[in-house]
Amino acid sequence: MNSNRAPIPVFIPLFIGIIAISFSSIFVKWSGSPVSIQAMYRLVITFLIMLPFAGKYMPVIRSLKRSEVLLLILSGAMLALHFLLWMGSLKWTSVASSTIILALQPVFVMIGAYIWFKEKTSLAAIGGMAIAFLGVFLLIGSSGFSGSKGHLTGDIMSLLGTAAVAVHMLLGQLLLRRLPSFLYSWLVFAVAAAVLAVYNVGMQIQLTGYSAREWGIFALLAVVPTVFGHLLFNWLMKYATASTVSMSVLGEPVGASLLAFLLLNESMNSLQAAGGALVLLGLVLFLKVGRTKKQPVDVQPEALG
After folding, report:
1. How far apart are CA 19 and CA 229, in angstroms?
2. Inter-axis angle of helices 95-102 and 270-289, to 10 degrees?
3. Is the pTM of this model over 0.85?
4. 11-30 vs 212-221: helix axis angle to the nearest 10?
5. Are 157 and 82 in contact (CB under 8 A)?
6. For 161, phi and psi rounded to 5 degrees?
7. What are the CA-CA distances from residue 82 to residues 99, 176, 180, 253 (Å)?
């Protein structure tokens, strides 16, 4: 636990945050709009909500180096790709499969840290990673065995989206050595929204003319999983350890699967349930034993679904 004392017990905002991010996949399923539009307006609305608090960071923005600007652009592009793939996966596969695969992000970050930073990890953590990936193979295999090409496509999209967000997080780790977390999030949200806008224009996807219901879903995506989820987790980082906040990745698939059962009438077959259980078990082991003492990469909660 960090030395600062939270004004309220940490478990309360942590629980609120987990419930909030669990609704992300539900809102995506409820919307009939293209996922690129959902993602773009989610980020635009979040950017506007944060705008009144960004003024004090203008001196930092003006002092950004060219290399830092390029990293911000690349990080935002990876976040946009993550949203396109992960939110797109929900149109093909179940909430449970998509969010369980998404929970692998700390593992992908560890792999990236090894490749880019030569950061070693313990054998116990590698064992947890292996168990988690075995669970993913069961999930993907269950989609293939069921004969549903759509589910298999969705599972693979979620896996690729998780890899994209891991790259985003690794780039963020480099930038957060100098930039405040709020400013980093605000700028990256702006870049990702711009990338998605270019994508929508290039693909000739309609930018306006959506119903009031759809605009309401866009707003809910911005306020509930982003403000009351990821930004709340950022605030929690001042009062709790990164490992504690990182455990939220285990709460999302559980909460999202329960909400999908109650609100979307989605259920899991026995093979999917076994795969999901293995993923969560592997992640518990991975997060519990952690990496070696030198840990240059922390989970950035704002990058989650």
Report:
1. 8
2. 20
3. no
4. 150
5. no
6. -65, -35
7. 13, 20, 22, 17
Per-residue pLDDT of the chain (305 residues; tens, 9 = 90+): 455 666 777 778 888 888 898 899 999 999 999 999 999 999 999 999 999 999 999 999 999 999 999 999 999 999 999 999 999 999 888 888 888 888 877 778 777 777 776 666 677 777 777 887 787 777 666 655 554 556 788 888 999 998 998 888 888 878 888 888 889 989 999 999 999 999 999 999 999 999 999 999 999 999 999 888 877 876 776 666 555 666 666 777 878 888 888 888 887 777 777 877 887 777 777 767 654 444 444 444 444 57
Torsion of CA 12, 13, 19, 21, to 10 degrees: -160
d(CA 39, CA 276): 26
Q: Identify the residue whose tokens are 């909500």.
A: 49
Determine contact, residues 264/26, Cβ cutoff 8 Å.
yes
**H/E/C letters for each residue in the chain?**
CCCCCCCCCCHHHHHHHHHHHHHHHHHHHHCCCCHHHHHHHHHHHHHHHHHHHCHHHHHHHHCCCHHHHHHHHHHHHHHHHHHHHHHHHCCCCCHHHHHHHHCCHHHHHHHHHHHHHCCCCCHHHHHHHHHHHHHHHHHHHHHHHCCCHHHHHHHHHHHHHHHHHHHHHHHHHHHCCCCCHHHHHHHHHHHHHHHHHHHHHHCCCCCCCCCHHHHHHHHHHHHHHHHHHHHHHHHHCCCCCHHHHHCHHHHHHHHHHHHHHHHCCCCCCHHHHHHHHHHHHHHHHHHHHCCCCCCCCCCCHHHCC
100, 276 in Cβ contact below 8 A? yes
Q: Please provide the size of the chain in residues.
A: 305
